[in-house]
Amino acid sequence: MHVTRDQLAGVLRARSGKLEDTPYAVLLLALAVAEESAVLDLRHNQIQKTIVFDDGSPIDCRSNIATEMLSRFLVSTGKLKAGDENAAVNESISRGVPIGEILTERKLLSASELYRALQQNLGRKLLEPFSWTSGMWSISRDVPANSSVLRVKVPQLLVTGIQKVEPQENADAASASLKGNYLALSESPLFPLSDVRLTANQQKVLDASRRSATLDELRSAIDPDDLHRTLYALSLLGAIETSESRPAPKFELANPFAADEVAVEVIVEAEPEPQQDLRVKAASADEVISAYLSSRRKDAFDLLGVPEDAGPVAITKMYLFLSEKYLPSRFDEKAPDALREKAQEVFLAAARAYAELADPVRRAALLQKRETMREEAAAAAKAGPSAMIDPEALYRSGLNFAAAGKLREALSSFELAAECDAQNGTYAAEAAWTRYRLGNTPAPAAMKLLKNAIRIDPNSGVAYLYAGQVQAVLGHKVEASAYLDRAKKLMPSDPRPAEAAKILRL
């Protein structure tokens, strides 16, 4: 469970391998510790993911899972209507502009809301591979140009992924491999603990390590599954270790970043304080964030907002306008969300764009590049879209198969849907229940899988329904009744929880 820096360096030298031998969490650690700029390719059955790292931090993730597209994510979270999504997607394709910019143009989202959604969607996509127990990986240093301005902290990503998505058996096995019953803080963690937000239970484990408590003490105070996940995550980060004898307790200050919820870095936007009135009005917070999000995607012409045949006067005029609008000193350096730093990025990008267009050789090269890109875009449009896997369609297909009594086909659909979206408790519950119905999984093992589905999504009604039915089979009538009562509250229009409860009372 503890990984040394030399072992992480060996992972990078290997360049490729199997996820069975080198789990996703270890790959993240290797790239983050070395502060690598690289591309990590992952393959698991039919699923493919490509993650781009900049100085050890993930900044972009692309996959062949349809629901991971930004527009689908926004619809699933209630931030966008399906009709608006279809229109925005079509315009995005026809204009060759990211859909996020289309959404802000149409005022369906503010720039601040878009920034938060991009950050949350990236975090969600990066969590998925924690559920993969098999597959292939490869690392390339040939990093393509990337316009992303997002950045996710690996220590927080790792703790969140192990807490929410990692298969329970992995955490159990890692916990069982601990040598010694006494906990202690590590002298040389891979990352500062201040980089991580901890849940209340995770903080308990850290506090117990400070006072050199025993694992037995924690087992009586924390749910075993939760404890094993926390031990796994903190040990991987090199934050805690175990020993056979009681070490001297350490009395450091408690983690000031402790919180009650785990989260991949989520940024909350706020308006800056009013600025003094100058000749050119300073950009609003939304304008700064919008310009910041698009600054790395746009070339010099697009960034300055001038046509390809613009002359020196028009280019200079637009540059001066933008440089005054985004002048960093016009923004309070203490403003929330690093607004001044974002304005500075836009300010510097405008200066680089002006310098490029003012140089005849560089301008000619840019014009040639734009022509090549137009030809490539036309060829890609002619080739048509690449195949995507849609877990929602797979889930509906599984329900249809199950209703027709075709349980093996249903299981195949549910399992692939759950692999595509390991953070969906309903997909996981349907897969577990179908395995149980087929006799592939005995009741105790099915119960463990259903509890995991509830942990993933506490609002998944079918997970409680199936858990109640399995508990009834196990003879645990009190527990079964509690699960079914919860299912009835979550599924008020579904008759199945009431029917199951009636059978339980007979």
Explain what the structure shows.
The chain has 4 domains: 5-151, no CATH class; 157-243, no CATH class; 285-383, Helix Hairpins; 413-505, Tetratricopeptide repeat domain (Serine Threonine Protein Phosphatase 5, Tetratricopeptide repeat). A hairpin with a 2-residue loop joins β2 (38-44) and β3. It has helices spanning 5-14, 24-33, 70-76, 82-95, 99-105, 111-127, 154-164, 168-176, 200-210, 215-219, 224-236, 285-295, 300-304, 312-325, 339-358, 360-383, 391-403, 407-420, 425-438, 443-456, 461-473, 477-490, 496-505, and strands at residues 16-18, 38-44, 47-54, 57-63, 136-140, 182-185, 240-243. Helices cover 55% and strands 8% of the residues. It has 23 helices and 7 strands. Mean pLDDT is 88; it is low at 252-278. A 5-stranded antiparallel sheet has the order 1-5-2-3-4, covered by helices on one side. The chain has a two-stranded antiparallel ribbon with strand order 6-7. With 506 residues, it is α+β, with helices and mostly antiparallel strands.
Quaternary organisation of the protein chains: single chain
The main β sheet shows up as: 5 strands, antiparallel
Structural class by secondary-structure content: alpha+beta
Fraction of helical residues: 55-70%
Spatial ordering of strands, largest sheet: 1-5-2-3-4
* Mean pLDDT over all positions: 88
The rough form would be described as: globular
Distance between the termini: 48 Å
Number of domains: 4
- What is the radius of gyration computed over CA atoms, rounded to a whole number of angstroms? 26 Å
Low-confidence stretches: 252-278
How many individual β-strands? 7
Strand content: 5-15%
The SSE order reads: HEHEEEHHHHEHHEHHHEHHHHHHHHHHHH
User: Counting H and I runs of at least 4 residues, what is the number of helices?
Assistant: 23
